[in-house]
Amino acid sequence: MTPPVRAAYGSPIFRRAWEKVLRAMPEKLVDLHGIRAVALDPYGERIRGERDAVDLVGVALGYDADMLVIPAGRFHDDFFRLSTRVAGDVVLKFQMYRIRVAVVGDISRHVARSSALRDFVAETNRGDGFWFVATEEELDARLAARTASGPATVP
């Protein structure tokens, strides 16, 4: 029986594995109006489905964070095609673990192609668990308004 191959430190296999770990790491832990949040790096692994959502739940729980701030570019295009059910699966996973999510960035090209996605974005933005915002400033304003009006429960 052949022993398993181990990647030597500095080898291309090791570097690729380490780069994947680094890309998956959050950029920073931040306090947003009293909410402990993990702001993810815009250049990390693409979020393709439920498994990736579970990994991110683990990141949030590992930092004892209540919220993830995820750049819109981190989501695979399938997330924005509601017929794939990726968006529903991902949102449900975050809600199951009571991790709030703010998707920050321009998603107008996706919304322009789908009235169903436009309705989905509007509906999730009415809640407190999953938001789509265009900029970090918009997220800050939403959280400031939420803080001023008192805490809301996470769905």
From TrEMBL:
<dbReference type="Pfam" id="PF13788">
    <property type="entry name" value="DUF4180"/>
</dbReference>
<dbReference type="InterPro" id="IPR025438">
    <property type="entry name" value="DUF4180"/>
</dbReference>
<feature type="domain" description="DUF4180">
    <location>
        <begin position="35"/>
        <end position="143"/>
    </location>
</feature>
<protein>
    <recommendedName>
        <fullName>DUF4180 domain-containing protein</fullName>
    </recommendedName>
</protein>
